[in-house]
């Protein structure tokens, strides 16, 4: 019986393993650009991404020149198996030349040796074009491991119509936001101003970021981990109060339940990165003209500082044998207007480009009819200036965020507190990093 | 070559040796051949076992122990080149200070406390019923009890997941209609729900073990108890149950080992309830450490710790049963 069950679990484990299929297609790279050009053909590189619109971008790039040919493969989103696929391919030695990695995962992949140090490959032009706060997030010990595509300041998306109906003014500070939450609860039974997202580990990070929190710090040559530092405690106490006094719903929001709450007008606001302007358009087509976008509430009116939520970067993996061609493609992808136009042409997207020069292009390409013609890109531009640059993502961010969310799921079920969930993630993350042999310090 | 009769063996010897060697010297090579054949048979029969033991147990365990002590380290923040170093008990300290590992152990402990007594008592009770002859349709009952065990764990979990999920499940629907609002996948109910899947899968198997043991109870002992005036209940509890104790020990031990390795059912349930997190049981913790955290040292150390716990608990169960047996046997 024992043996049988053990075999059974093993089979299940094997079945659950993300298959490293398609790895074979990644072998087609190879041969430097010089060699390829000597043969007369273009250099071939491979590119994996989960970002929508990537195929259009690749097609536009391939059409724009004949030196480099990109073979694109759409892979699942990071948490849906995309990162596991990339990691497995790297272990097998056939990772693609270029891969999309979100900001929080950059240090982890860099430490594991999956990503190349791009510092010598990045041109001065590109270095100057990208927002310094974005590059700061992908640079460790003066080595840059990936090139930012977009930077996504946390915004407040709100139902203009419902705010007007209930006589609520747009909250500029978190105190005003709390007052508005009380008003909504009083005036609109069964409805709430907002939801505390129990699947929102990365949103919580964005809130802590805004409050000047510092979950990870590398300034002293070690990973100083302090998920429950003073500013974060302030943020947590705020949301715990909103939840305890029943001023906010508490449930996952990037799920059918969360989408339904918004569809039924039970929730008046949503806090997300700038990219979600497109997300809301896609998921709530019936609410056209009802939404507005505003800056995230501030802790005090004098301090404009804001955090981010989301955002992607492009990296070259250790298995790339064609780094110059790969970098040429990346530079085109993040900084060429045709690339942005191609990406936005694929459907509804409102990503805020990390290359400031592209903002006018995005503004022109984005149809702002859904937001009643509001100039949201000018708003994003103002907010992006205030993204504070102290933030550092940790080396096992997927697991840190997931541990927080596991705790928040229990909080939702009535067990424990938000602070408890974050403190557990703190201890678990420290165990993780220590076991990896990294220099750590408890902050 | 078979030397079954003296004549053939003599013939064989005659072929190989000089006929003048005499009976004394003839017996020695014959004996050696028999012994060699015995050893050969032993070897042929045991080799597969030892080969499998070596390749699917000892080498992986050795690999896990190695991985738990040696690590590919980079100094400082970790962005430099890797080198293999002896890490000592670093990974073990990390696992034992990780609250999520400790809570996975606690969850499994609670699961064992609910599941093991439940299945042992239920299986024994049903086996006693079948054995007493009180139950009609014994064969049908046995078959229907045993059938779920033939369903692979992953399929069982899928079936039950369907029955547990609100909106999909006819059971939840029916209960809702009767104004009973129950969430089988809630914080407090999910562990009993997993226990329920395990009972459904394994009850029949354990009933068979107990039933076989009960069938082996000598009939004259039972007749003697009837003559002494014991009713069917008393016979069952005071005569039959003590006699099937070795089977009970076996059932408890196998169930314990299986429970500590709980993986399939919660892994599948974690897809549809966030209450079952990615590190719900030690095996899930190990899987998560290796495949989502890419932290092989941590996964290996957790595996070794789990192995040690399983060995220690199995040993404790067998010691406890030996000790419990001794005074009785002495009394007899």
Automatic annotation (TrEMBL), chain A:
It holds the Pfam family SBP_bac_1. PROSITE patterns: PROKAR_LIPOPROTEIN, TAT. Residues 1-24 form the signal peptide. Keywords: Cell membrane, Lipoprotein, Membrane, Palmitate, Signal. SUPFAM superfamilies: Periplasmic binding protein-like II. CDD domains: PBP2_TMBP_like (cd13585). This is Sugar ABC transporter substrate-binding protein. It comes from Streptomyces boncukensis.
From TrEMBL, chain B:
It is found in: Cell membrane. The chain crosses the membrane at residues 39-69, 108-130, 142-163, 243-263, 296-317. This is Sugar ABC transporter permease. One of its GO terms (biological process) is transmembrane transport. SUPFAM superfamilies: MetI-like (SSF161098). Keywords: Cell membrane, Membrane, Transmembrane, Transmembrane helix, Transport. PROSITE patterns: ABC_TM1. CDD domains: TM_PBP2. InterPro entries: MetI-like, MetI-like_sf, UgpAE/MalFG_permease. It comes from the Bacteria. PANTHER family: BLL4140 PROTEIN, DIACETYLCHITOBIOSE UPTAKE SYSTEM PERMEASE PROTEIN DASB. Residues 105-317 form the ABC transmembrane type-1 domain. It comes from Streptomyces boncukensis.
